Every structure is written in structure tokens, then in C-alpha cells.
């Protein structure tokens, strides 16, 4: 579009298409087309005879503006071509990403966990068919970077506490670590909650509000032991037991949706196991463990709708709690220790687990420190003891301690294993009454 140097330097008005076209360096037809389509500044001479003229300065200004517009247009065309190229390359990726996001959204909306479990330090949630929905690694506390989760202190349950139709995952986390050269383990207990799609809602250390006999708070050295779920008043509930490592009280508490605790029961010994039963048409909590104050093991039935309850007082005054209780549990059974308990250098037994059976729960007592002699207390569906039986290892352990002189009578005449099991029930009038349970042995059936 540039004119010849000689033509561009011509002075004065340009008259006629030939002069104008020559100044611009184009044909007359092109100059005439530019007048119509691009606003070339050409004027017509008066008289209507078709003569035209143009001012060189105006043509120069027009050409300069046209050069700028052309450069901008060329730049815009290149930019549009690049955009189209990138769009064509990115379209498959974007479509695939959108499809994946839609699939995940649909799966997250449709699939909720049907089961949860721990694999090492990771919590795993599976759907109804056992397919993995999500996995969450529970890192140990910063002060115990090498700690691992101890299975017997780590549990996970599903419950819809916020009543949105999708269950949350609640877990107790028991981190243990043995420093080099130390016989004592470092322990850190936590509880945590995840939404149904695996998003962590909260995680913190649980500290019950119960007070020691002197009114002081217990040191925050609590370990989780058992978890259970049930429906009360049309809503899901989660219950947890927490045991103190030094002073040995045990606490049963309800875990609220925000992670705070509502204490339901305090015992002068660890609470190791939980089960849910029905008592008088309402859910009740069956708790089992040991009693340091009375020595032996215990079973208690607690109404989760009631206020704070305590085990019946017994033993030295140090086995007390400062805060008052609204009453006693629905039932509290004390199972005194046997001669095998003392012979194994232990002063308490403990109900280690409560199994769910079709006819009713079964409490499993670990006798003393043997861990092989076990007593099984069979109950009805409401948690009332019916009968007892012992494991075959009880006779073997008894005879072993007979040979060592730690037990002075033969197993065949043992008052604890060969007779009905005599346990104690705390009565409403504030005293212990004896309950005799038929005992099944290797020589009889009941």
C-alpha cells in the first residue's frame, strides 16, 4: 500500500484519480474502492462533472491510521487462531475432566459408606459391595511421629448424628509408641469424625469432666476402649468408654456431633466393653469391665436418656468421684474374684468383651492375669444374667497353681468353679443382694 517515494513527496493538491492512485501506489480502481469501503478522504470538484481531488496531508493521515488498524486486525486474527488451536487441543482433556468430575459427584451423591475399618494407620470406607469409597491416613501427633494405632484402642462406627440421611464416621484413635530403652509406652488418645465422603470434620483429645475424690481434675491421660451406637428418641447416638492410665477410673460418655462429651456413667475401674440392649421398650447400654474399689469385675445397665450416674461406692475413699450423680445405673452387678484370680497375682478380673448372640449378649470375663481361663455370663436380651460357664483352660490353670502351692484345694472341689456362680446385685434400697447363676462345667450341662 506504500506509494513510490517520488509520488509521496509531491506537494499541493492531487487532482484526478490517476494522481491520487499514483500517490497511494495503487490502481485507480483500488483507490475508488477504498473511498466506498474504507473512507479514503477524496473530494469531488464542484460542477458535477465527476472530477475529484485529495489533500496529501489527509491521505498521509489516513494511511497511518489504516496501517495501525491493519496491524491490530492481523494481531487479533493471530490471537484468535491461537485460541482456536488451544481450544481444539484442550477440548478432549476438558471433556474427560468434566466427565470424571460428574462421575465422582454422582458416585459421592449416591454411594455412602456401609462399612469402615482401619488398615494400619488408615481409615478405609467401603460401599455395600465392598468397593473402596475413600481412604484417610490418620497421622500420629507431632510429638510422637513414629507412633502407630493400637487395634484394641482404635475403633470406627457409622452413625447419622446430624440426621441428614447420610452417616458420619466416628473413630477413637489410640496411638502407642515405645521409645528406645523405655519399658513405658507413650500414649495419645484422640477421637475424630468424618463426613460420609471422607472429609475430616474434627479431631481432638477426649477429656471427660469427672473429678477425682478430692475435687481435682484427673490428668489428661485417657485411653479409648470401646464404642457403640444406637437410636434414642429417633436419632442416632455414639457412645465411647474412656479409661484413665494412672488412677484407673472408667467413664462412659455420649459423643455429641461437635465432638464434645456428655458423661453418662463413671466407674471405679476400667470400662472395657459395651453393648446395646432393650430395657422396658427403650435402648439401654450394657457396660462391662473391672472394679478396683470392690475387686473383681462388673456389669452395668445404663439408661442413655438419664443424667450422670456413678457405680455404687465401695472400697477405700480414694475410689470416689467428687461430682454428685442423679442416681445409680438401672442395674449394677459385681462378680467377686476367684481363688485363681489371686493365685495369678492379680486382685481384679475384668469383662474384656461383650459378644452379641441371637439369644442375648454374652459377657466374657478374663480371670486374673491368666488370659486363658475365661468365664462366660449369658444374659437375656435385656442384659439380665441367666447362667455361667467356664473355658476348659480354667481347669488346666487351676491345676498348675495347685502344683505350685498357690491354691490349697483341688479343682474338683473349687467353691468358685464347681458351684453356682454367686454374684452381687446392688439393690434399690442401697445394699448388695446375692444372685446365684447356674454354672456349666465339663461334668454337667445346664
Instruction: Determine the strand fraction and express it as a percent band.
Output: 25-35%
Helical/strand content category:
alpha+beta
Shape: rod-shaped
Helix content: 10-25%
Number of strands: 27
Rg result: 43 Å
Number of helices: 6
For the record, give the distance between the C-alpha atoms at the N and C termini, rounded to a whole number. Answer: 116 Å
Let me know the largest β-sheet. Answer: 6 strands, antiparallel
The mean pLDDT is 86
Number of domains: 2
Which parts are unreliable, with pLDDT below 50 for 5 consecutive residues or more? 1-11, 105-109
- The order of strands across the largest sheet is 16-17-18-20-25-26
Topology:
Elements: H1 5-8, E1 14-15, H2 17-24, H3 28-38, E2 43-44, E3 52-54, H4 56-110, E4 115-119, E5 122-126, E6 132-137, E7 148-149, E8 155-159, E9 168-177, E10 186-194, E11 200-204, E12 222-232, E13 235-244, E14 250-255, E15 261-267, E16 271-279, E17 282-290, E18 297-302, E19 309-310, E20 331-335, H5 339-343, E21 350-355, E22 362-366, E23 374-379, E24 385-390, H6 393-404, E25 421-426, E26 432-437, E27 439-440
Parallel strand pairs: 15-19, 24-27
Antiparallel strand pairs: 1-3, 2-3, 4-5, 5-6, 7-9, 8-9, 9-10, 10-11, 12-13, 13-14, 14-15, 16-17, 17-18, 18-20, 20-25, 21-22, 22-23, 23-24, 25-26
Amino acid at each position: 500500500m506504500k506509494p513510490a517515494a517520488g509520488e509521496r513527496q509531491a506537494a499541493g493538491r492531487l487532482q484526478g484519480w490517476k494522481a491520487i492512485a499514483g500517490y497511494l501506489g495503487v490502481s485507480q480502481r483500488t483507490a475508488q474502492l477504498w473511498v466506498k469501503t474504507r473512507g479514503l478522504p477524496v473530494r469531488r470538484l464542484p460542477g458535477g462533472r465527476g472530477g475529484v481531488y485529495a489533500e496529501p496531508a489527509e491521505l498521509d493521515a489516513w494511511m497511518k491510521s489504516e496501517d495501525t488498524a491493519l496491524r491490530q486486525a492481523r494481531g487479533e486474527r493471530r490471537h484468535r487462531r491461537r485460541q482456536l488451536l488451544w481450544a481444539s487441543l484442550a477440548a478432549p482433556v476438558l471433556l474427560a475432566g468434566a466427565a470424571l468430575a460428574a462421575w465422582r459427584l454422582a458416585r459421592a451423591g449416591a454411594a455412602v459408606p456401609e462399612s469402615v475399618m482401619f488398615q494400619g494407620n488408615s481409615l478405609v470406607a467401603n460401599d455395600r459391595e465392598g468397593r473402596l469409597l475413600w481412604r484417610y491416613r490418620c497421622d500420629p501427633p507431632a510429638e510422637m511421629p513414629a507412633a502407630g494405632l493400637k487395634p484394641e484402642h482404635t475403633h470406627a462406627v457409622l452413625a447419622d448424628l446430624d440426621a441428614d440421611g447420610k452417616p458420619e464416621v466416628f473413630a477413637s484413635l489410640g496411638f502407642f509408641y515405645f521409645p528406645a530403652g523405655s519399658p513405658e509406652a507413650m500414649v495419645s488418645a484422640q477421637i475424630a469424625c468424618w463426613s460420609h465422603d471422607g472429609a475430616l470434620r474434627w479431631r481432638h483429645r477426649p477429656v471427660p469432666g469427672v473429678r477425682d475424690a478430692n475435687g481435682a481434675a484427673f490428668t489428661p491421660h485417657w485411653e479409648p476402649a470401646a464404642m457403640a451406637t444406637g437410636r434414642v428418641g429417633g436419632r442416632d447416638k455414639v457412645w465411647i468408654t474412656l479409661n484413665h492410665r494412672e488412677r484407673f477410673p472408667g467413664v462412659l460418655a455420649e459423643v455429641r456431633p461437635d465432638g464434645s462429651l456428655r458423661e453418662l456413667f463413671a466407674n471405679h475401674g476400667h470400662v472395657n466393653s459395651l453393648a446395646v440392649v432393650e430395657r422396658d421398650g427403650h435402648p439401654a447400654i450394657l457396660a462391662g469391665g473391672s472394679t478396683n474399689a470392690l475387686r473383681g469385675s462388673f456389669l452395668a445397665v445404663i439408661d442413655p436418656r438419664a443424667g450422670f450416674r456413678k457405680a455404687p461406692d465401695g472400697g477405700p475413699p480414694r475410689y470416689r468421684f467428687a461430682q454428685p450423680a442423679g442416681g445409680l445405673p438401672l442395674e449394677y452387678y459385681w462378680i467377686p474374684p476367684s481363688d485363681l484370680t489371686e493365685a495369678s497375682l492379680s486382685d481384679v478380673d475384668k469383662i474384656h468383651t461383650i459378644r452379641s448372640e441371637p439369644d442375648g449378649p454374652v459377657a466374657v470375663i478374663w480371670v486374673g492375669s491368666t488370659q486363658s481361663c475365661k468365664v462366660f455370663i449369658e444374659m437375656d436380651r435385656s442384659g439380665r444374667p441367666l447362667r455361667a460357664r467356664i473355658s476348659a483352660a480354667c481347669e488346666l490353670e487351676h491345676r498348675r497353681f495347685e502344683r505350685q502351692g498357690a491354691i490349697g484345694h483341688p479343682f474338683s472341689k473349687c467353691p468358685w468353679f464347681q458351684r453356682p456362680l454367686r454374684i452381687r446385685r446392688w439393690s434399690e434400697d442401697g445394699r448388695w443382694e446375692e444372685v446365684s447363676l447356674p454354672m456349666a462345667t465339663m461334668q454337667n450341662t445346664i
